[in-house]
Structures are given as structure tokens and as C-alpha cells.
TrEMBL record, chains A, B:
Cofactor: pyridoxal 5'-phosphate
Domain HTH gntR-type intervals: 1-68
PANTHER family, per the entry: HTH-TYPE TRANSCRIPTIONAL REGULATORY PROTEIN GABR (PTHR46577), TRANSCRIPTIONAL REGULATORY PROTEIN (PTHR46577:SF2)
Protein name: Transcriptional regulator
Length: 468, 468
């Protein structure tokens, strides 16, 4: 397994342009020293590079980078290699998929703008500018607007009885930036980190770019295998565990309360930071989800990312990071370097809207609308004469669908795109680039009519593939 | 010189928490291999760490990190070391200085919010929301709003006759994020880069955090020493030259047209990217500055950063990066990972305001207001019976003041802060942590009355120090 991570690490550095065509790669000894791994591991990674047509050997001189064209040729040599290479390409495909303008976009876990109270929000913005007429002329501090941080600190207190000082809150541009900044302060090349399997693919891209060694933790409807988590923490001493325990993306699963408490204990014992990404918390259907894992933490091992981009106002890109000084301090320093602070305009609009009654009403309506869409998607999936399986999500935006063995996700994907239907193949959510029998379908963006028609068409395509 | 850069590199990694108190540092051989430098260089860096009380030696086992307390003690041993240590502390002081709530804030190169057309802007925002009522519900692409990129592409064409396609423009959160993303895609640890001396201190912080080896190029009122620049490019093969050639921060100097053309030639010859940071271009007093260096580039070696945060609307944090696909491509990928795109709200507000007639009127008034403030500052500086010297800035926000030898910047700084006057000590703008006889005074934030009184008081303080 480890050599595969070293392989990915080298590929990342090649993609970054650190080593170009016909450059000499570092000697096995040097790279082993730099990455703190065994020479045999580097040797195996170099062998795989050679096998995949990414590197070639010059007698007595070492390994060199293959020019692009030749690497393509190299790939055609056998089936096995084709698979590896397509996995690597899949790696960077989420943004590509999002570029596709399909009629039935099940690929984007984004809320239909028609479900957001846009007109009200626009009116609201005008009020905010009446309150702060000079808003446009003022910079925010890198940490974020103090008024906003106070409001969020009170919010945590009121909802979860957790006391955090406003100085322990950082505002970022969406959860994406929070994950990137955390990766920058925690990860050195080849550091082990735990990630759920499957997980948010953009987070995987960030961690890989930072050179992390990804240790997967399977997420099932029952949660994690806690003995396995403990063993992995013991064995790999990961810097952190990046998790999305509530209405998880892509599966929709939720980690039970007991495991939340156990994880906090494990984190303390093995000094492993828990990064809890909680973007979907408020998007529950029947009942409230368990408390954030973060609220059980008394020793400061948990960092809580609460994005409001998805459901309050995507246009504002506001995410809050809650954590103890030991993490928030370095994070503020990283944020200062990265962009010196979010715009003040968007923070002020957010803080006033967030506290309004209208916001609560919006949320209640939104939950109902999302639940209806989930129900429609499930109805249509169940009506199809295909043996696909899923676990009903109790919140969030996605259904994680297991295809029958006779239908491969990549075949279904190619055919669907041709018919203007998009979804996310499971493979790109998998730290191991596998999970080829799974796909993520988002029911949040397309309207009810499109949902019905789109899923019916998807089922037709799957059926045709099955019959071949 | 090189060992000092290795020293800074190790200090950065210690500050990041990569190596903590009593951790063993890498062996000299390993670190030399990792950084691609001579072992002797690493040895010298370790010696300096030891001397400064940052590391200690265990017999036959190597170098270890000193705990914080002891390092403080270690520093007291001799004068030389005190200086080194205070230079390192100075390093992270710009944000600290900005936290100081002085009555006379000459430390911030920010435009007085009273000089911005705030009320008009607020009215403007309301119009924008009337045009795009669903603005709040929509994400921008990572690269930035297409309408905005088209407008900026046309702007370049109209003003400088340079044709760049909208796909060759990237929108970032201020110039700060553009610099950070460029550092991330270009710099590997110990890569050489050229920086002006003095320069924007936050850029130095970013480059150091990324592990760059900083090669200084002196910037005088006459520009750079071009032979020296060529020699440095030849010798160090720098990845890029980060420059701010127009109304330079902190000096206010402007690079002459001839040198701009020569630099573009040198960049091609030595394959050194030119990063032209041009935040002050529109803030000229008597006449327009020379064309951006970027406009002379035909081979794609120049990247042009044009921030509008300073003078259009700081609250929006909009910066545009212009460059060829070979740079913009990786930059978009980095931006996607970093935060997946600026908020759409701020981009739409900006694009409409930027094209308005009112914006042109504002700019003309702003130039006059800034010129008046510069004149007042110069008047008061000249009236003081102190032999300080400066070159009149023809634009921008700052005066770069050389103190008489009898007055040290750090003494003046400590005393000024006590009397509620802030400025930026030259040392933190210097890649070599020297320039202790220089300070940066910004005339853009404080009003005319405060300018007079503040400079008079500063002169009084300097005089008292001189007489001691």
C-alpha cells in the first residue's frame, strides 16, 4: 500500500511541474530519506512508474520522466496498466464533471437556487448597506469580522452548550479553504492522515497535493469499525482524521452518538486531531442529527468546520472554523498569508441574515423541499427493474447507490453523459481509486419533474447495459 | 549567505511545529540531500542555530530543538545574537503593527475610507441586486465570473493594446492570495527567487513559508542595477522575480521604461518568470506611469497582478491575475483547491461599478486628495530640523524615509508607539532583515490635520533621540 502512496506523491510532483519530461528523478536513496520511508518502498513506486509508462530507466544513471506522448503509448501495453492510468485520470475529474452542462445534473451537491429566498436576501442586502454605509471601504481582519464571530460563538452556546470565545473562531471562504489551510498547517510530505472511505473528493485532492499518505477508514450505515480506527491510529500515528460524520458526503450516513464519544477518547489517547466537516447538519428530514462530535471534546483535539455556503447563501461563501487556540492560532497565521481575510461585505450581509427570523422559516421550508426531492428520487429508483441498492439518507443532499455487478459505473457514466445526465462515479470519492460499483446521485439541484424523468432515463440506460 | 537561508528555512519549519522542543533535527547529510545544498551549508546553519540558542547538540547523536524558555536565555549571551533574534521577531510584526490602534497611523498603506464614494457604492449595490435577484444562490466558477473576466480583458486591450483572452484571467481574493497561489505553484523548498530590496513584507512571509531562498535586488530611485539582475539570474536560475515596479511599496520608486523592456528580455533569456504586482498604477499624481512591464512581454514570461482592493472598494477584495495558459492553468487548479472561487456577489458588484462613469470621477478626485496628503507630509518632514531624506513619490501611498545615522528605527518605533504614532520599520521590508535606518510612512489613511500633527510629533521624538 505505502508504495502506491509514494507513487501518487511522485505523480503529484510531476503534475506540479517539479519534474518535467526527461528530467532525472531523485535517486532512490535520496527520495527515501526525504520522505522518511524504506528504500524498497521507493523502489516499488519507481517500478510502477516505469510499468505505467511514466518513467524510464537509463543504464547506470537512474530514473527519468517520460514525455507525455510516450506515456500514453506505454499505457496501451496491457489491461492492468490501463486501469491504473484511468484511475489516476479520474482523480481530477470532479471539476470536469461539474463543467458538463447536463440537463439532469445529479452530479452537483448544491441546492437549487429556486429553493433559496433570493428576493428576500436581495432586499436584506440593501438594509445592511443602510446600517453600514461605509462597508465597501473597510477591510476585515484576517480572522474575520468580530461581530460575526461573536454571533457564531453565542450560536454554539445556545445550540450545543459549548463555550468557545470569539477568538476561537476563524472565518474562511467556504469549507474548501478551511480544509486547505488545515492541510497546510498539519501535513508534511508522507504524513499519515485518516480519511473516510468514500469521502469528499476535493478534500482528497487537497491532501494529495500536500503530500499526505491517505489511510482509509470505511464508512458503513452503522458507522466506522472502531477497533479498526484504533488500530490505524496506533499503527500510523496520523496527524488528523478528516471526517464528515453527519449526513455524510457522498453516502448520506450518520455516525451514531456512541461512536462520536469513543472517537473523542481515541483522539486524545493517540493525539490525533479530529477535523469534523459539518456542512449538512441543518439539512435533516425527520429528526435532528446527533450532536457534533466536537461538543464531546474537552481536551481540544476536535476542530469543527461549519459551512453555511450550501444552505444560507452559496453566493457568500461563509464557513466558520471552531477550535482551541493551539489550532486556531496557526490557522489564522495561515489565513493571513493565504488571502488576509474574507471580504467584509459578505460577512456583514451574512451575520444579519443569519440572525433573522426569516432565516429560520427558510430552513424549515428547505428541509421539506429537500425531503420531497429525496422521496421522489427513492420512488423512481425503487420503481426501476434494476437491482441497485442504497440506504435512505435521513438528511443531506445525496443518495449513494450501489449498482448491480453487471453494470460498471464508468460504462454507465459515459452513456449517461451522452444522454445529458451527470452523476459522480464512486471511484473519485475513494482514496483507493476503487469503488467502481458505486455512484453518488444528488437530489438537491434538479427540480421535481427533472428528478423523475432523469432517474427513469438513468434506469433505462442501466438496463440496456445490463442486457448486453 | 546561503546558510542564512537554510537557517530561516529551519526556523520556519520549527515555527510551523514540524520540529518541537527536544525533537531531533535531521542529520546534516539528510537535510543537505533534501534541500539540494552542500553539507557545509547545512553545518553552518546548524552552528548559527546553536549560537542563537535555537538548537543544542547531544554527543554523538545530533542536533536537537531548544525548548522556548532556554532559547530566550541563550539569546542574552551577546549583542550579536540579540540582533539576530530581534530580526527574526521583527519578521512577523507587520500584522502586529496593524493591530496597534494608534492615533496617527502612518503604518497602514490603506486609503482613508472617507475618500471612497461609499454612499454611491451602497446605492450601486442595490442596483446590482435588482439586475441579478438570484445572485445570493449562485456559486462562481473557481476562475472567476466570466462577465468580469471579459470586462478586464477588454480593459487591458483598451488601455495597453494587449490582447488576452478572458480564459487568461483569474480572479483572486486580493493580491495577497495571488502571491500565495503563485508561490505554491512555483516554489519548492530552497528554490531561488528574486525579490526587490526592500519589498512588501507579507510577500516575504509567504515566500519564506514556502521555503524559498530569497535573492535580493536593490531598488533605488534609478531602478535596478541591470547587470546585477542578469548576474543573479545567470547564477541562481531563479524561478521568478517578484516585483512591484510602479509606485513601489514601500519606496514609491518607479522602474523606468527602458529597464522594463530589458527585464522582459532577461526573463526570456534566463527563463525566469516576472511577477508584476501593480496595485498602485492608477494612483499617479502628475503624469501616468510607464506601461506595465507585462505589456512588453510576447513570450509569456510575465504574470500581471492587478489589485483593485486598494482604491476601488477594499471591502470587495478583488484582484485580477493576467497571464498565459502555462501559468494561468496551474493557477486555476491551485485556486480550485484553495477555496474553489471568490464569492460571486462581490465580483458582480465590482464589475458594474468598475465600468461606471462614477468610478472615473472617483479616481480623479482620489488622485488629487492623495497628492494633497503627500504634499502635507513632505512639507512637515522638510520643516523639521532633522536630517532625514526621501525621494518624492510620484504616486502610490508611501514615503520611504531615511533616518539620520544618529536615530535608529527601532528606538524611534518604540517611542512613537508609546505616543500613539505608528509606522513600518524598514527592517521588516528587507529580505535581509537589515535597513535599520529606514522607515515607511503612509500618508493615505490619516486625514490632513492628523498628518500635520503626527509628523510634527514624530519629528519631536526623533529630535529627542538625536540629542541623547
Amino acid at each position: 500500500m505505502l508504495f502506491r502512496q509514494v507513487y501518487d506523491h511522485i505523480m503529484t510532483r510531476m503534475e506540479r511541474g517539479e519534474w518535467n519530461a526527461d528530467d532525472k528523478l531523485p535517486s532512490i536513496r535520496c527520495l527515501a530519506l526525504e520522505l522518511g520511508v524504506n528504500r524498497l518502498t521507493v523502489f516499488k513506486a519507481y517500478q510502477l512508474l516505469k510499468q505505467n509508462g511514466k518513467a524510464y530507466v537509463k543504464e547506470k544513471s537512474g530514473y527519468y520522466v517520460c514525455p507525455e506522448g510516450e506515456s500514453q503509448l506505454g499505457d496501451r501495453h496491457d489491461e492492468q496498466q490501463m486501469a491504473t492510468s484511468s484511475a489516476v485520470q479520474m482523480n481530477s475529474k470532479l471539476s470536469d464533471i461539474h463543467q458538463v452542462t447536463a440537463a439532469y445534473r445529479f452530479s452537483q451537491a448544491v441546492i437549487d437556487p429556486n429553493l433559496l429566498p433570493n428576493l428576500f436576501l436581495s432586499e436584506y442586502v440593501k438594509k445592511v448597506f443602510d446600517i453600514y454605509p461605509k462597508l465597501m471601504g473597510i477591510y476585515s481582519t484576517p480572522q474575520g469580522d468580530e461581530e460575526l464571530r461573536e454571533v457564531l460563538s453565542r450560536y454554539l452556546m445556545r445550540h450545543y452548550r459549548v463555550h468557545l470565545h470569539p477568538s476561537e473562531v476563524l472565518i474562511t471562504t467556504g469549507a474548501q479553504q478551511a480544509i486547505d489551510l488545515l492541510a497546510r498547517i498539519f501535513i508534511r510530505p508522507m504524513d499519515a492522515i485518516l480519511v473516510e472511505r468514500p469521502t469528499y473528493s476535493a478534500a482528497l485532492d487537497i491532501f494529495r497535493a500536500q503530500g499526505a499518505r491517505l489511510i482509509p477508514v470505511a464508512f458503513s450505515p452503522a458507522g466506522y469499525d472502531m477497533d479498526m480506527v484504533e488500530m490505524l491510529m496506533k499503527q500510523h500515528r496520523p496527524r488528523f482524521f478528516y471526517m464528515n460524520p453527519t449526513f455524510h458526503n457522498p453516502t448520506g450516513y450518520t455516525l451514531p452518538t456512541l461512536q462520536r464519544k469513543q472517537l473523542v477518547e481515541l483522539a486524545e489517547r493517540y493525539r490525533c486531531v479530529l477535523i469534523e466537516d459539518d456542512a449538512f447538519h441543518e439539512m435533516y428530514f425527520e429528526e435532528r442529527p446527533p450532536q457534533p462530535l466536537f461538543t464531546y471534546d474537552t481536551e481540544g483535539w476536535a476542530v469543527y468546520l461549519r459551512s453555511f455556503s450550501k444552505y444560507v447563501a452559496p453566493g457568500l461563501r461563509i464557513c466558520a472554523v471552531f477550535g482551541r487556540q493551539s489550532v486556531i492560532g496557526p490557522l489564522i497565521a495561515a489565513k493571513s498569508l493565504a488571502d488576509n481575510g474574507n471580504p467584509l461585505v459578505t460577512q456583514k450581509i451574512f451575520v444579519h441574515y443569519f440572525q433573522s427570523e426569516r432565516m429560520q422559516q427558510h430552513l424549515e421550508k428547505l428541509r421539506i423541499a429537500l425531503q420531497i426531492r429525496r422521496d421522489i428520487m427513492e420512488e423512481e429508483l425503487a420503481a426501476a427493474s434494476i437491482d441497485w441498492r442504497w440506504t435512505t439518507p435521513k438528511g443531506g443532499l445525496n443518495i449513494w447507490l450501489r449498482l448491480p455487478d453487471t453494470v460498471s459505473a464508468s460504462e454507465l457514466f459515459d452513456e449517461s453523459i451522452r444522454q445529458s445526465i451527470s452523476f459522480v462515479p464512486g471511484q473519485i470519492c475513494d482514496p483507493l481509486h476503487e469503488m467502481q460499483s458505486w455512484i453518488r446521485l444528488s437530489y438537491s439541484l434538479v427540480n421535481e419533474e427533472q428528478l423523475r424523468v432523469g432517474v427513469q432515463r438513468l434506469a433505462d440506460i442501466a438496463q440496456r447495459i445490463q442486457k448486453r
